[in-house]
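Handout, section B. The chain below has 531 residues.
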Amino acid sequence: MKLLRSLLVSTFCRNRRLHVSAWKNQDKKKNVGEVAWIQPTGFDTGIVVYNPIVKSKVPLITRNEGYASWYMCGPTVYDSAHIGHACSYVKLDIIRRILVEYFDINLITMMGITDIDDKIIKKSGESKRDWKELTRFYEKEFFSDMAELNVQQPYLCCRVSEHMPQILQFIFQILKNGGAYVTDEGSVYFDTSKYQAYGKLGIKETTAPCTQGKRNGQDFALWKAAKPGEPFWESSWGPGRPGWHIECSVMASEKFGKSVDIHSGGIDLAFPHHENEEAQSCQHHGVSQWVNYWLHTGHLHINSMKMSKSLGNSVSIAELLDKFTADQFRLFCLTSHYRRGVEYTDDLMAASVAILKKVECFLDDCNNYVNGTLPEGNVDEVVILQSLAKTKSVIQSALAGDFDTPKAIREITSLVTLGNKMLHSPEEEGTVRSPAVIAALANYITSTLKSFGLETNTKNTQKSSIQTADVIDDLVNLRRDVRNFALEVKLKDKRLLEACDAARKNLSLHGVQIKDYGNTSTWSFGGARKT
């Protein structure tokens, strides 16, 4: 499978080599401030991604062939995460898996944890809990929630509070470079007037009053002078704590240096957070570009409004998982593009549940057909293989084209529809069964969904033990024999058939779905399992 993907990637690269060369070296003969984005040189992944600076798709080129660096903004751990956060992290997890599993990129991921800021200080005061105790509690809860959603942990995790010496040194270097100034009260501000490239990701007008000692409206704090009762650290400028933006720059720079391949976060972080990160990092390192590619996820909306605790419309991750499985929510995330906003509604979630159930039932039918327990089926091998090849090609292009997962899911469901039609068509006389072709079809669908982080809930992938499946096999076979006996002898007393129907209904409550085909019965895992 990986060999085929490598060949497809190589072909994709060759077909657009002229396009790539047109982008290269565009920064030559230009000065810092005149260049919005500089295409990096290095390893062409064969992928194009949306670039919010030039507002078009550009080739994804990593600095090294051996690995790619990815820094992701993590949570500010002052409260529980809601499904708006979950949607963003699940979508980024999907992209991460595609890069690693589908395109075979050795990806080094890092997440910064903000464990000291205004919201944390406020929550600490309101709850009368020490800020360290508070942040450790919500940090642990966050990663527990992510594990429940099958979001992979980053390779590296860093807390702001554990990087104070590095933060102070970073600020000192910016001051030394002439890119910042110290106020009378002991705060340090980045001087945007000294950085001509400010505004790469867009500048929004601010109506906030200008803080005392601040020279320009867009200037932002690198270091905040301590206020009474707040946590603080000593510095050359007096006691205080870091500003919001400096934290990510320092932690990412410590691990990845003066250039980062990919940086991600929600769309609301593009400005001012990511804009300010880029500005201060370029000023510190003396480079024209610090981050090569920005990935921003769209908002999750409820009743056409952004989900937010402040608006009182948030749904907790625990509440989500009481109603739906992690796979069902992940499919919901897959069916909308990562850059687009998406409305969270019961209808859209129901549609995702239905798609996942359709796929899982089909995969179980494939297994039953291959094992000879599905009695019908009229499979056209040529049509299946042609459709499979076309689907592979379309999905390859979709994923290489800014991670178009909605298109990939549509292709998979179309393939399932075709397969279902053939598996449930009556056998014609002389029909030759095609178990290998159906197995190949099921294997491709399963492996593709797995590369998105979906663990299809079928007999072959269910996390129950093999012994449990054997017990269910025996139980379903016993029910089948009793049912066939009752039908054959045509008993007037219908209690045996009623008992068989009751058994099927009761097993469905435990997630076991039984299907009767004439005198044969099959079963599969499906729906929520009763515990």
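Note. The CA atoms of residues 43 and 62 lie 5 Å apart. Compare this with the example in section A.
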